[in-house]
Structure formats: C-alpha cells, structure tokens
User: Fold this.
Amino acid sequence: MNILFRFGERHNLTFAFPVGGGNQLFYPHHFLAKFVQGFSARSPRRFNILCHHMRFLQPEVQKVVSSSAVYFSILRNPVQLMESSFSYYRGMAAFSRARSLEEFLNQPYLYYDPTDNNRHYARNLMTFDFGFNPDGEVSAKRVQLMLKAIEASFDLLLISEYFDESMVLLKEMLCWDLDSVVSFPLNIRDSSTKSRLSDTIVEKIKEWNRLDWEIYTHFNRTFWERIDRDIGRERMRREVQALRERQEELARTCLQGMGSVAPKDIKDSSLRPLQHGSAKILGYNIKQGLDKETEHMCRRLVTPELQYSSALYKKQFAQKPPQTHQPTPSRLGNARWHRLEDTQN
Assistant:
C-alpha cells in the first residue's frame, strides 16, 4: 500500500477511498461500489487506484475502475499467515480462549464457530478475501474452479516471501522505474512476538487452511514460471540486487540506525504504527537535518498505512474554496487487493 500511495501521490492520481475515510472498504462484507467515497450509480466516476482492504467482488470493482485497469494481489504462505493472525487477532472469539496456536489446532472446532462474523481470521483468510467460502468443501473440482476464477480476474499474483522478486515483476508489468517499487518493510512484528512452529503444527496449519494452501502452492508455481518466461533467473537476480542496493542507499540517507525500531523507541508519534493484539509492530526514525525535499521523500517511505491513507484522503477531498459552491463530501461512516488504472506514459 505504501508503494501505491507514493506512486499515486507523486502522479496526482485518484484513490477509491472508503466512504468517510478509514482503511477498509466495509470489510469483511463483499465489496460494493457504493462503499467508495465519491461514487454515484447515476454518474459513475472512475478512480485510478483501488488498494484499501476489501473482500473481492469483481463486478462491483469494475464499476469504480477503468476497463483497462490492471488487477494484482499478493499471497502469503498460509503457515506464516496463520501464526501471524493468531498473534494479531488474539482478541477475537476463535482465538481468545486458546492458550496457544497449538492448543487451537489440536481441537479447532472447540474454539472455531463458522457462523462468527470474524471467523475468516482463523481459517483460509486468503480464500475469504478472494470472495470465496473459507469453510467450503475441499474437493479437486472446487479447488480448480476457484483457481481458474482467480486467474481470470487477476493479471498478476505476487508472493510475500519473494517480495523483491514480486516488485521486479510488478515494475515490469506497469512500466515503472526502480524507485517506484523501492520500499522499507512496514507493518512487521518484532521477532520476540513470533512463535516457532514444530513440523507437526505446520502440517496441522496446512490441513486446517487447505484451501489457502492450494491457492498459495498453485500461484507460487506460476509465479516462478512467469519469471522464467518473461524475465529469466539471471536478469531477475540482477534486478533484485539493484533493488536491494537502492533500498540500502535510501536507508543510509533516511534512517537513524539504518533499520526498524521498537514502537516505544519511535520518536515521532505520527510515524508510529498501530499496535494490535499481542503483536509488537516496528517502525522507523528519520534522520535529523535533512533538506526539505529529502525529508519529504524519507517520511513518505516510512509513514504507516493508516496515517498515509488519512493524509491522502484529506488531500483528495479537501474542502473547496467557497466561491466554487461545491459541497463538502458527506461523511457517512467508515482488507488486501490492488486495482490500478494504466496511467503511466
């Protein structure tokens, strides 16, 4: 999201924000066009970038983006995703009574209620976010239909564990330059809040999240097939090296200590990420004494999602000067997909 926020801001593009601001398009409900600030069915408006958290529903997405929009998403290994969810969402019903992830997985239905509104955090989260039933039957036919539906909707599926390679693929597809996809890791947990998983627990996670595992293994394979077809391993290695060298250069320019720090050590409160559950989310300190232009660039690289989204919302829906006689947008109240209109030269 930080990468898309920076690109959109730099090129003065429009974002499909949730009505009233916020960072979720009425998640966990399926996405509807009416959830977007400024959308009107009578006079449809097309937005350049749709990247806030949602549960995917393509017919509704198509109402708010151009017909030439590029659709992409990013997947994460379901094993790490489950471990992270247990840490981050400990307060929800499915996890709150289990003393450990192992205890939950030993008897999941003792804690898991398929009718609970927040059940998706505890099982097949990616399946849910793509718009499917996380408690659906795991049959070969159903899995194939699901994979074909995702392939038909998305131009590119990125892989979190190969983030740098993913950014190279994204850069190639969108004809962007290197700096557009350089980033610092955001919304990451301190290692002290991560749990080591035994082989037995890993297998139980895969089985409990079988639909997610099928999605991940399929698109992990097609990810590397695409690299071999479109770029080649040797060129990919050089591109990734260039990306990492640029990231290190920016870290030397921008960051105190060259890396992330614990939330208690972040000096600028506006750069402190949201802390949730038992996770400890890291952040950054920017060097002092930077010139105005460099400071602005560095700040954008380390601004957390919530603060960045809020700033862009206020900029896009700034109240117009009185002489224009345009009303202030109504504020009616408040997921992982990216839709981007092809706006580059």
About this structure: The first helix runs from residue 2 to 10.
